[in-house]
Design goal:
single chain; about 550 residues; mainly beta; eight-stranded antiparallel sheet; about 35% strand; elongated
Length: about 550
């Protein structure tokens, strides 16, 4: 059962204070109107206690634990109602939370107010009234002393309590509605931020005489206790007050807009929301999912982890330090479609790159670039799932790009990327994969590593990294951005070197499978597919995407 401790409960008439001394007292649930089922009791150590209990000569019962927060003590000619301190606070906290939630308060506000009830106002809320009979006078109202664990005669209007609890949260300068017929209650009055008092109902006799003014600090809240006087009117006193319950929500962010999406991201920007105490941050959600904080008060954020080719409605709202959430602004945008290897190449400006891919008959031309194929070159199965791959057998010389476009592509560039799919069929020797502007990619025989060489105004630099083996398919890329040259294998960087200046050009233009038509050294033995030269430095993410799309990573 739930534990509700009752400490040294006094069995006494609340008005005459007649006591049930040395009596057998049975403990019932207050809801058991017929006194039919005595409760199961435990001591403070969790061991069973008998029921009925024996009262002392002063009419005190030993401490016990029951499974309900309010009990009836029946014995010695008396019926007395008793409430556990824990149960009273639970009732007050539940009523307070319900009232705040009904008023539109946020979860954070409710938690803050309930925590205040459990700490700052504990003594005041522990006071309670029991069975106020008709004709009682102010000075006879008994008050439960939680510290002493007994009832004491109370002064008029100083009590507060549990029993039938009601809570009223008012806006500034609005009446506190005290329902008729209630016996004991609480009222929570939120003061106007700029000063003034609430309009209290008529007939309240205030402890101290004067009608209390509400506190006017930021988020100030006053907690009052009321008891209905059967002789007429109400008795009221301030139980506690506290600051920090801010109920004003921020405004909605303005001008929410989406930038250019990628396949997995949508960038957002907006104008700042406003709040009476200041905006503490922003949060967003996509397609009515869970709200996620942006982690700052900044007015720009990029939503990540999205799915390609998908429409998203993204909402953004502000919150303050009290947990108030403002209205959301929304925008709809779609992520880009995922690209295949061929689509990514086709999306590049044709004037900035050249590409060779075989067909079933001859080298042909691509992007208006003429290619001269050597004698003995065969076309193998496309390594990327496309058409053919160039199958270099022993002495077959390189495929050479010809024409003005070729020479323009390999000379004077400030940045470039060259890449290819390659599979060697020989273990010995160095295999030249692609050559342009005195820069190249090769399978280096002496080291068994991939080789990149960049020839620029700042010098010639070699990069070695990764390892290759015959019969294995690789995606190899060499990128130079004017400051750093980087070598990638299967989309992963394996080497880098600092360098500067424009690329050193040469004629004839780019070649695949060798470095010179007239030389038999360093010729490729094996397959090369989709060799490309870009007149820009692709990013690591772009190179990885191309490698993955080609099926080599």
């Amino acid at each position: 059962m739930t534990d509700y401790p009752f400490d040294s409960t006094l069995v006494a008439d609340p008005v005459t204070f007649a006591r049930a001394a040395n009596a057998s007292v049975t403990v019932y649930d207050v809801a058991d109107t017929a006194n039919a089922s005595p409760l199961a009791l435990k001591d403070l150590n969790g061991l069973p206690l008998p029921n009925p209990l024996a009262s002392s000569k002063d009419a005190f019962l030993p401490p016990f634990v029951a499974g309900v927060p309010q009990v009836k003590l029946v014995g010695g000619g008396l019926t007395v109602t008793a409430s556990s301190y824990k149960g009273m606070l639970e009732n007050v906290a539940a009523a307070l939370a319900a009232a705040l939630a009904a008023s539109g308060a946020t979860d954070a506000q409710v938690a803050q107010a309930v925590a205040t009830v459990g700490s700052q106002t504990a003594v005041a809320l522990a006071q309670r009234f029991v069975g106020i009979p008709a004709g009682i006078t102010d000075g006879q109202v008994p008050v439960y002393d939680a510290k002493a664990g007994r009832f004491v005669p109370g002064a008029g209007g100083t009590g507060g309590g549990a029993g039938v609890v009601f809570v009223v949260l008012t806006a500034a300068d609005q009446p506190v509605a005290v329902p008729s017929g209630a016996v004991v209650g609480l009222a929570l009055a939120q003061g106007p931020g700029g000063g003034g008092t609430a309009a209290w109902p008529a007939g309240i006799k205030w402890d101290g005489g004067a009608v209390p003014a509400l506190h006017t600090g930021t988020g100030a809240v006053d907690l009052f206790t009321f008891v209905q006087n059967p002789a007429g009117g109400w008795l009221g006193t301030r139980a506690a007050w506290f600051e920090g319950v801010d109920s004003v929500a921020p405004t909605a962010p303005g001008s929410l807009a989406a930038g250019t999406p990628t396949k997995t991201t949508i960038p957002l920007s907006w104008t700042a929301a406003t709040d009476n105490t200041g905006v503490a941050g922003y949060e967003y959600r996509a397609n009515a999912g869970a709200w996620v904080s942006t982690g700052s008060t900044g007015t720009a954020f990029t939503v990540t982890g999205l799915t390609a080719n998908t429409s998203y409605t993204i909402e953004v709202r502000a919150f303050d330090a009290a947990g108030n959430r403002g209205s959301a602004a929304s925008v709809t945008a779609s992520t880009q479609a995922a690209q295949t290897y061929q689509q990514a190449l086709a999306a590049t400006n044709p004037a900035t790159w050249l590409r060779l891919d075989g067909d079933t008959a001859n080298a042909g031309s691509d992007r208006s670039l003429a290619w001269a194929a050597p004698a003995g070159l065969a076309w193998g199965t496309g390594l990327d799932g496309g058409t053919g791959s160039a199958d270099f057998a022993n002495a077959a010389g390189p495929i050479t790009a010809t024409g003005a476009t070729a020479s323009a592509m390999d000379a004077g560039a400030g940045a470039f990327t060259m890449m290819a799919l390659v599979r060697s069929t020989a273990a010995a020797g160095t295999h030249q994969v692609i050559f342009a502007g005195n820069s190249w990619i090769a399978l280096h025989g002496a080291t068994g590593k991939f080789q990149g060489v960049v020839a620029a105004a700042g010098g010639n630099k070699e990069l070695l990294g990764g390892a290759w083996a015959p019969g294995t398919l690789y995606h190899v890329a060499l990128a130079y951005d004017g400051a750093t040259a980087r070598l990638y294998v299967n989309g992963t960087q394996v080497a880098s070197v600092a360098l500067s200046g424009a690329v050193n050009g040469s004629v004839p233009g780019p070649m695949v499978g060798g470095w010179s038509p007239g030389s038999t050294s360093l010729r490729m033995t094996g397959l090369v597919d989709s060799p490309t030269v870009h007149r820009s430095a692709l990013s690591a993410a772009q190179i990885l995407e191309l490698a993955q799309a080609a099926g080599a990573a």
